[in-house]
Design a protein that fits this description.
The protein is an alpha/beta fold. The chain contains 13 helices and 14 strands. It binds pyridoxal-5'-phosphate. The site of pyridoxal-5'-phosphate (PLP) has 13 residues, from α3.
Length: 407
């Protein structure tokens, strides 16, 4: 029988446990304050007040105006809404012919990658920027590829597989100088590291609640100005005409509380997670046939010193084990009571290495053996020690198996 109380959960980039304060805030909405925020009676007005408060909470995490926050069903919808919303606006206004170029990176989450691949098939010109071995973009390349036709640059802020954090400030300056719109998928960074949309001059930013100890199926999109934007969905007038549909109020309230709490704890959260991250990376780097991937240990140490600019999401660690399949490592870790994930995806019966690892240029004998360990607020130093010992065992056992099979 699966017993989750005995497990060490280190898959916080996949999702997080909803924190008790969030559940507490959500329950009254489900039980008593169940009104529809669009209704004019008392139930409706109370629901509307909850909705407004949640919007203020989320806006304050990124220093936006409350009216610039639009609630959605999560990061995937926010990402899709930006891409297809802009395209629809430009097509309806018959200016597609002038601006039909979008620049993105080779390490986007599928929620951006797939919509852009769709557009590519429809004749849009999409440029996929390269990254270096640690997952950072070459900003000179970005600068050189912008043309008069470029409508949008969309770049993931913190990569979900590598934890690499791009320098939004520099990217935004390039976009603004060239009069290009800028979107960032901040699903993995929102609430965890400082983001100030005004200072950064962002046009769009995607967020999700379940990565910050909030509920699943809710997120938000920051839109600087909705003047040149058409909604993805069509229906009622909710969310200021940008996202129709009766609001998922309990979850939105939970999202607001999760954001507010994490914002208040941000520097403590970062400090704790960076400390554990450094210990875990050090321990794993000593294991034979294990390669750390993404931004280096040295960069994490710099994180903790400057606090000015972060290179990697606090608590994010990724490794590759030589000549083994990531899926096997995840299953072995599960048997040892560790819940983690791999960057490989099973497609058509074969394990395909992730597009992110391939883009980083991870050597072919390591690229299939990826393991992602993402620490969260519940992890301890004991967890870190146990994980290091377990990975040592697992890597050794799988290596021996691979050798026996090959002989
Ligand atoms: C970077 C990134 N973007 C988008 C998403 C999708 O978010 P959601 O699960 O809320 O749809 C994720 C989820 O893992 C993500 O990591």
């Amino acid at each position: 029988m699966f017993n989750n109380t005995k497990m060490i959960y280190v898959d916080n980039s996949a999702t997080t446990r909803v924190r008790p304060e969030v559940v507490e805030a959500m329950l009254p909405i489900l039980k008593d304050d169940f009104g529809n925020p669009s209704s004019m009676h008392g139930f409706g007005r109370k629901a509307k007040k909850h909705l407004d408060d949640a919007r203020i909470n989320i806006a304050s995490v990124i220093n936006s105006e409350a009216e610039q926050i639009f609630f959605t069903s999560g990061g995937t919808e926010s990402d899709n809404a930006v891409i297809f919303g802009l395209v629809r606006y430009f097509e309806e206004n018959e200016i597609k012919g002038k601006k039909k170029h979008i620049i993105t990176s080779k390490i986007e989450h599928p929620a951006i990658k797939e919509p852009l691949e769709c557009l590519q098939k429809d004749g849009w010109h999409i440029t996929w920027l390269n990254v270096n071995r640690e997952g950072f973009l070459d900003l000179n390349e970005l600068q050189s590829l912008i043309t008069k036709e470029t409508l949008l640059v969309s770049v993931i802020h913190a990569n979900n597989e590598m934890g690499t954090i791009q320098d939004l400030n520099k990217i935004s300056n390039i976009c603004k100088t060239n009069n290009v719109l800028f979107h960032t998928d901040a699903v993995q960074s929102f609430g965890k590291i400082p983001i100030n949309v005004k200072d950064l001059q962002l046009d769009f930013l995607s967020m999700s609640a379940h990565k910050i100890y909030g509920p699943k199926g809710v997120g938000a999109l920051y839109i600087k100005s909705k003047d040149h934007f058409a909604p993805l969905l069509i229906g009622g007038g909710q969310e200021n005409q940008i996202r129709p549909g009766t609001e998922n109020l309990a979850s939105i309230v939970g999202f607001g509380i999760a954001g507010k709490l994490l914002k208040g704890e941000m520097s403590e959260h970062t400090k704790n997670l960076c400390g554990l991250q450094i210990e875990l990376m050090k321990g794993l780097s000593d294991i034979e046939n294990v390669m750390l991937t993404g931004p280096s240990l040295q960069m994490i140490k710099e994180n903790t010193l400057t606090e000015r600019y972060l290179y990697r999401i606090p608590g994010h660690i990724s490794i590759c084990v030589r000549d083994v399949e990531g899926e096997n490592i995840v299953l072995q870790a599960d048997l040892k009571g560790i819940a983690a994930s791999s960057g490989s995806a099973c497609s058509s019966g074969t394990m395909e290495p992730s597009h992110v690892l391939v883009s980083l240029g991870v050597p072919h004998n390591y690229v299939r053996g990826s393991l992602r360990l993402t620490l969260g607020r519940e992890n301890t130093e004991d967890d870190v020690r146990y994980i290091i010992e377990s990975v040592k065992d697992i890597a050794g056992n799988l290596q021996r198996k691979a050798l026996t099979l090959n002989n």
